[in-house]
Amino acid sequence: MKLLFDLPLRPALEMLGSEARFPVGRIFCVGQNYAAHAREMGFEPQRDAPIWFTKSTAAVCHSGATIAYPPGTSNCHYECELVVAIGAPAFRIDLAEALSVVAGYGVGIDLTRRDLQNKARDKGLPWDTGKDFENAAVLAPLTPAATFGNPGSQRIRLTQNGEVRQDADLSQLIWSVSELIAELSRLYHLMPGDLIFTGTPAGVGPIAPGDRLVGSIDGLADLTLAIGEPE
Ligand code: MN
Q1: How many structural domains does the chain have?
Q2: pTM for the structure as a whole
Q3: How far does residue 97's CA lie from ligand 1's centre (Å)?
Q4: Burial (CB count within 10 angstroms: exposed 0-12, middle 13-18, buried 19+), residue 4
C-alpha cells in the first residue's frame, strides 16, 4: 500500500536487560486510584468502577528529556505513577491470571493541564485537552516483570528540585494492578504494547520552568524530567 506521507514511528521504550525495545501501542490511564489523592482532588474515594481515560502515542516523552513548559495552561501538574506494560493479549482475563500478561513495569509521569481538566470536568465534558497533549506521558525505561516481581508495597516517590512532593506505596492502590488489568480487559482486547498508568498518590502540584523532577519506585529505573521555558 502506498501512503501519501509517512508518519513518525511508534515510540518504543527501553527494556532493561534487553537490546530490543518495547513499542508503545495504546496508553490507558486510571484516575483517583489512591484515596488520599481522590480527597485532595475534592472527591471521596470510590470502588464503583475505575475512572479510565487515554493518551495517544503522540504524548510519549522519554525520561531524561527537557521539555518546554506545555502550551495552553498556567497550572500544569506532575503525577508520578506506576506504569504497567502489557506483553500478551488479554480479553476478559481472570483476576488470578491478570499479572501473567505483564511484560514489565516502569515509572511514569502523567502530566496534566489541571486548569483545562478541571474546567472540562466541572462542565461534564471530556478531559482530553487536560490529559492528552505532547510530552504528557513521560516514561522511564521498563524493568521486566520477572525482575521486578509483583507489585506489592514498593515505595513510590516524586521529588521536585530535591523536595519530596509525593511519597506513598503501591499497596495503597484502590484498584490493584491485577484488578485494573482484569477490569480493562472487559472493555478492550488488551494487546502487547498497551500501557496502563495506574494512578497517582497524593501530593500532586504545579511544575514551573527550571524544575527538575525525579520519579522513583523501589526496584525500577528512576524517571527524570526537566522543565524549560514555554515555547
Ligand atoms: Mn494520573
Answers
A1: 1
A2: 0.98
A3: 25
A4: exposed
